[in-house]
Amino acid sequence: MKHTISGLLISLALSSALAATAQAKSFSSDIRATDTVELYTSEGCSSCPPADRWFSTLKDDPGLFKDFIPLAFHVDYWNSLGWTDRFSSPAYTTRQHRHVNAGNTRQSYTPQVVLNNQEWRGHLRGISSWDAGDRKTGVLKAELDDANQLKVNFSPASPEYFEQKQWQLNVAYLGMGLTTSVQRGENSGRELKHDFVVLEHRRQAVDAEAQQWQLDMSAAPDAGQQQTALVVWLSDPVTQHTLQAAGGYL
């Protein structure tokens, strides 16, 4: 009888371990640099909904999270004009201004698209694709386990990436299928739909030579999204130029 109980306990322990493993989410980039497409937008801006709708079409692209990663940063400088965007953050406004300060863009406005750290206006002309080249930077891998511990590993394609001693590790939760009924401001009376909304963006300086890092993450924010994605990217701490990115749905 003792043998039977012991066997049962071992079986239960193995089952629990397998279940925990099954809940872990893993993401990996290709060796080619993944494109990052940043949209700076606001629910208080009447010209933003068309850009938001275009951004939502990217979720149907087969290259999503493999060839490119969309990030919708809601800025806060429209909040004083009648409607407070619940997804906005002064940190996202600061990020947009840093692109200007680094010479990546000429000015900050909404809606603004920043493709691989350069201003891009193709969506205004109905262009839904771009050619960002075939720059090989290395493979970025990330794994989020059931205890919300995130492990990140980067294998550079060339020794030149060790010349920079420090990188910035970025982690963001993205919300999909979000809806807001705007009551005031320029979009008063409109129901706005959003995808790829940055619900939380965490930045941390990391030692480039280490090549692997671990972070204790909080649970994904609940903003009423239909689906959540996790995105991880390495960037220059000053210019914000993205080295490599990976991500996917949780």
What do these coordinates show?
The structure is a single chain. The model is unreliable at 1-21 (pLDDT under 50). The chain starts with a helix and ends with a strand. It contains three helices and 14 strands. It has a four-stranded antiparallel beta sheet, with no helix packed on it. The chain is an alpha+beta fold. It is globular.
How does the SSE layout of this entry go?
Blueprint: H1 2-23, E1 25-28, E2 35-41, H2 48-57, E3 68-74, H3 90-101, E4 112-115, E5 118-119, E6 138-144, E7 149-156, E8 166-176, E9 178-181, E10 191-194, E11 197-207, E12 212-216, E13 227-235, E14 242-249
Parallel strand pairs: 2-3
Antiparallel strand pairs: 1-6, 2-4, 4-5, 6-7, 7-12, 8-11, 8-13, 9-10, 13-14
State the shape: globular
* N-end to C-end Cα span: 42 Å
Secondary-structure element sequence? Answer: HEEHEHEEEEEEEEEEE
Number of strands: 14
Helix content: 10-25%
Mean pLDDT: 90
List the uncertain runs: 1-21
**Strand portion:** 35-45%
What does the radius of gyration come to? 20 Å
For the largest beta-sheet, the strand count, sense and barrel status come to: 4 strands, antiparallel
Number of helices: 3
Protein structure class: alpha+beta
Order of strands across the widest beta sheet?
1-6-7-12
Task: Sum this structure up briefly.
This protein is an alpha+beta fold.
